[in-house]
């Protein structure tokens, strides 16, 4: 059997399938909650939506290395430095899993990088906020990675196989990220009053931008309905935001910090917390490029890419030379 | 098996070839496909695969295979290609009727 695996089985295949049949097969796959795999036929809109979402997700991981990476050289102990290194390395890894997943849809890796660097594709607004103190490292782990977990756990069942599998891997690692952040903050909270104030200040600055990470409210999220019909997404923005709030409130109490929302209170009837509305005009402003650190993040990414060019070219030249040498040896 | 769309790769300037990565998580288990990465050559593919896919003791052995070298069946011919095994129920043990009181079979 193995010997015939590479022969063209086209002999047995009838005429190429017609588009309505392909669409029907795709619809059945989604309806049965099965996964779509790379070489399956899929509607162009599904492919485009996925490429955009996965690419933005990948870009977010890559840009997300910067706010915390800034603290690697200034971490207060070797233990914290090693942890931070591992965490930032994970973010790079997550970016690479996701770029790979985007490539299975026919996206070109270099083109995706160009789109990020030229500002033609977005990344998560959250990474455009600054990290002036070490408490920010802890709050990013707790809030930002906590929010990412809320977003990403349901994506492990996303209808596109490679995306879902990348998310399984990412979610396993995010748990370490969230816990190291919370532990860092707990340590600071047992320190001096100045350290406790530093934690509260970071919480005050990151709370609302973290809630914005879930995107605009459901009635103002034009692409959500289609993404949910395609089962790329499993829960609406507002559902996920609620989940994050409910999850975080008791953690804040244990930590001894106050979440900066006067409207935040338990609603017995709903079985959820009520909370205030984030300033979504700020979200739109930051996404459009006018956040505190947009220019800095983009400039840093562009510089890293440009300064790495000679390394990529040298590696390619070395590989080409080795290949020529091996060919010559084989011929001899 | 391949996650790629199977087109031939001619490598434009700087674009490293794509590799599929397989990890044996422990002795006694098969290598399993975990994803792909780009690398300039085989050696870089292995070191990048180590850094990307085994940061937490996920593996004891790695394979890196150039994606373009993978031969794969195509989804279009799924039905005819796998059809030969579809109607051979007698290949399964449950096909055979054995009285319940016959031991160890």
Outline:
Chain A has 332 residues and is mostly helical. Helix content of chain A is 64%, strand content 2%.
How would you describe the overall organization of this protein?
The complex is a heterodimer of chains A (332) and B (105). By secondary structure, chain A is mainly alpha-helical. Helices cover 64% and strands 2% of the residues of chain A. A two-stranded antiparallel sheet of chain A has the order 1-2. Chain A is globular and about 75 Å long. Mean pLDDT of chain A is 93; it is low at 1-13. Chain B contains two helices and three strands; from the N terminus they run E-E-H-E-H. Chain B has helices spanning 42-53, 78-82; strands spanning 18-24, 31-38, 61-66. Mean pLDDT of chain B is 85; it is low at 1-10. Chain A binds chain B through residues 5-6, 9-10, 12-14, 16-17, 37-41, 86, 89-90, 93, 96-97, 100-101, 103-104, 106, 109-110, 162, 165-166, 169, 173, 309, 312-313, 315-316, 318-319, 322-323, and chain B through 2-6, 11-16, 18, 34-38, 40-41, 44, 51-52, 55-56, 71-77, 80-81.
Tally of strands of chain A: 2
Compute the separation of the termini of chain A in Å: 35 Å
Strand content of chain A: under 5%
Distinct helical segment count of chain A = 13
Primary descriptors:
A: 332 residues; mainly alpha; two-stranded antiparallel ribbon; 2 strands; 64% helix; B: alpha+beta; three-stranded antiparallel sheet; elongated
What topology emerges from the helices and strands here?
The complex is a heterodimer of chains A (332) and B (105).
Chain A: H1 19-31, H2 44-63, H3 65-69, H4 78-103, H5 109-117, H6 135-155, H7 161-189, H8 193-212, H9 224-229, H10 237-255, E1 265-267, E2 272-274, H11 280-287, H12 294-307, H13 309-331
Antiparallel strand pairs in A: 1-2
Chain B: E1 18-24, E2 31-38, H1 42-53, E3 61-66, H2 78-82
């Amino acid at each position: 059997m193995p010997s015939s695996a590479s022969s063209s089985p086209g002999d047995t295949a009838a005429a190429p399938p017609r588009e309505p049949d392909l669409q029907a097969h795709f619809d059945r796959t989604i309806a049965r909650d099965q996964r779509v795999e790379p070489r399956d036929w899929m509607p162009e809109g599904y492919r485009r939506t996925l490429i955009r979402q996965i690419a933005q997700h990948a870009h977010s991981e890559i840009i997300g290395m910067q706010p915390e990476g800034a603290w690697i050289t200034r971490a207060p102990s070797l233990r914290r430095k090693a942890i931070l290194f591992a965490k930032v390395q994970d973010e790079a890894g997550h970016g690479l899993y996701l770029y790979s997943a985007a490539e299975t849809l026919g996206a070109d890796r270099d083109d995706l990088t160009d789109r990020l660097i030229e500002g033609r594709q977005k990344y998560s607004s959250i990474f455009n906020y600054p990290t002036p103190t070490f408490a920010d490292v802890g709050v990013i782990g707790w809030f930002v990675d906590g929010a990412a977990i809320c977003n990403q756990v349901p994506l492990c069942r996303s209808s596109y196989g490679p995306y879902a599998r990348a998310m399984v891997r990412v979610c396993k690692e995010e748990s370490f990220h969230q816990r190291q952040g919370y532990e860092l903050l707990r340590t600071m909270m047992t320190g001096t009053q100045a350290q406790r104030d530093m934690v509260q200040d970071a919480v005050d600055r990151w709370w609302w931008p973290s809630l914005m990470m879930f995107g605009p409210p459901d009635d103002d999220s034009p692409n959500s309905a289609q993404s949910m019909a395609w089962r790329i997404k499993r829960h609406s923005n507002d559902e996920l935001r609620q989940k994050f709030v409910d999850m975080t409130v008791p953690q804040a109490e244990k930590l001894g910090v106050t979440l900066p929302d006067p409207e935040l209170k338990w609603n017995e009837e709903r079985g959820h917390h009520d909370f205030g509305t984030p300033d979504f005009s700020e979200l739109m402003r930051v996404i459009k490029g006018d956040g505190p650190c947009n220019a800095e993040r983009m400039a840093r990414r562009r510089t890293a890419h440009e300064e790495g060019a000679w390394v990529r070219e040298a590696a390619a030249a070395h590989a080409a030379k080795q290949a020529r040498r091996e060919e010559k040896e084989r011929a001899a | 098996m391949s996650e790629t769309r199977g087109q031939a790769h001619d490598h434009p300037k700087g674009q490293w070839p794509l590799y599929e990565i397989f990890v044996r998580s422990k002795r006694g288990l098969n290598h399993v496909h975990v994803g792909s990465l780009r690398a300039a050559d085989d050696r870089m593919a292995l070191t990048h695969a180590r850094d990307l896919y085994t940061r937490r003791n996920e593996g004891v052995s790695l394979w890196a295979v150039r994606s373009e070298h993978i031969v794969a069946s195509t989804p279009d011919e799924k039905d005819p290609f796998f059809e030969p095994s579809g109607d051979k129920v007698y290949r399964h043990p449950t096909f055979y009727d054995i009285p319940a009181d016959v031991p160890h079979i």
